[in-house]
């Protein structure tokens, strides 16, 4: 989903983060300045921002157009608006999520709570309902469902595996590439593969997804980057929206965003046949109630 077509209610900073992998190096430096301190960029002239990012004013203009604006003044206005909304929401200076050794534990808690809450709100706002409907249709009619997620995304994949299996669907999670490739080599039309990767560039996830699609299986990607390799390899893409900076390797807000999409998928499938769903959930509950 290009930045210009994403819902306006999604904060600009979130959209910039989603476009980051698609930008040229010079444009990426401008984007990183926006992500680091959007309020500061909103106050800067185009010349000052270009100098700070070691680039030229025309590059800043190109970046603004990539984000769906006619030029830099409109980009600054949108950033100022978002910064004002954030300040009103938190009753303090907008939080960026960036942490260092000087921050207190109280500030750490505030920043993490902010990032996680925004991941939920922004992902809900950004979620493409027609794409979600298509994904639910595919799962309801699936003969078999394979889930591919490695590293931090494996945690989200396990959660979805458990949820769908409780509805009586035939699911299996592959936590590493060789297992995924082996199993998916036997898939075809009527099967569904769900692939999860925040970056959308994890080769261990992209390769099985591409293989599944080449064999006729329906492929669903859950990623933060709509222009990523994973999104391009999938039939259906569900885009998350999370901002992570200092501890990105911890995959914190991205995991929360993935779980929002997973819960929407689960409930969407469950509501297609409520009597069957209730019977399946009751049966699985009774099976462990006395353990």
Description:
It comes from Ruania alba. Keywords: DNA-binding, Transcription, Transcription regulation. GO terms for molecular function: carbohydrate derivative binding; DNA binding; DNA-binding transcription factor activity. Pfam families: HTH_6, SIS. This protein has 291 residues and is α/β, with parallel strands linked by helices. It has two domains: 94 residues, Arc Repressor Mutant, subunit A, CATH 1.10.10.10; 161 residues, Glucose-6-phosphate isomerase like protein, domain 1 (Rossmann fold), CATH 3.40.50. It has 14 helices and five strands. The protein has a five-stranded parallel β-sheet, sandwiched between helices. The radius of gyration is 21 Å and the shape is globular. The termini are far apart.
Describe the strand arrangement of the main beta sheet, using strand numbers.
Answer: 2-1-3-4-5
Low-confidence stretches: 1-7
- What order do the helices and strands follow? HHHHHHHHEHEHEHEHEHH
CATH superfamily of the largest domain: Glucose-6-phosphate isomerase like protein, domain 1
Query: Domains counted in the coordinates: how many?
Result: 2
CATH topology title of the largest domain: Rossmann fold
Report the β-strand fraction as a percent range: 5-15%
**What is the count of DSSP helices, taking H or I runs of 4+ residues?**
14
Coarse morphology: globular
Distance between the termini: 47 Å
Biggest sheet character: 5 strands, parallel
């Amino acid at each position: 989903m290009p930045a210009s077509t994403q819902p306006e209610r999604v904060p600009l900073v979130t959209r910039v983060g989603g476009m980051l992998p698609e930008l040229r190096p010079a444009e990426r430096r401008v984007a990183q300045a926006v992500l680091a301190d959007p309020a500061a960029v909103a106050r800067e002239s185009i010349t000052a921002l270009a100098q700070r990012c070691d680039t030229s004013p025309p590059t800043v203009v190109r970046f603004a157009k990539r984000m769906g604006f006619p030029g830099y003044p409109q980009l600054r206005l949108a950033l100022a608006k978002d910064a004002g909304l954030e300040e009103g929401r938190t009753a303090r200076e907008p939080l960026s999520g960036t942490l260092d050794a000087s921050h207190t534990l109280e500030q750490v808690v505030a920043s993490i709570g902010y990032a996680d809450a925004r991941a939920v709100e922004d992902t809900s706002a950004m979620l493409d309902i027609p794409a979600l409907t298509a994904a639910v249709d595919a799962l309801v009619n699936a003969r078999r469902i394979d889930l591919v997620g490695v590293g931090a995304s494996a945690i989200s994949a396990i959660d979805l595996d458990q949820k769908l299996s409780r509805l009586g669907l035939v699911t299996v999670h592959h936590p590493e590439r060789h297992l995924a490739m082996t199993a998916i080599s036997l898939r075809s039309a009527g099967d569904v593969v769900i692939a999860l990767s925040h970056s959308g560039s994890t080769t261990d996830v992209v390769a099985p997804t591409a293989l599944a699609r080449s064999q006729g299986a329906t492929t669903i990607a859950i990623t933060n980057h709509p222009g990523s390799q994973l999104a391009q390899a999938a039939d259906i893409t569900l885009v998350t929206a999370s901002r992570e900076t200092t501890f990105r390797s911890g995959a914190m807000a991205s995991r929360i965003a993935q779980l929002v999409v997973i819960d929407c998928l689960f409930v969407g499938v469950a509501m297609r046949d409520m009597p069957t769903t209730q019977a399946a959930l009751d049966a699985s509950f009774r099976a462990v109630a006395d353990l």
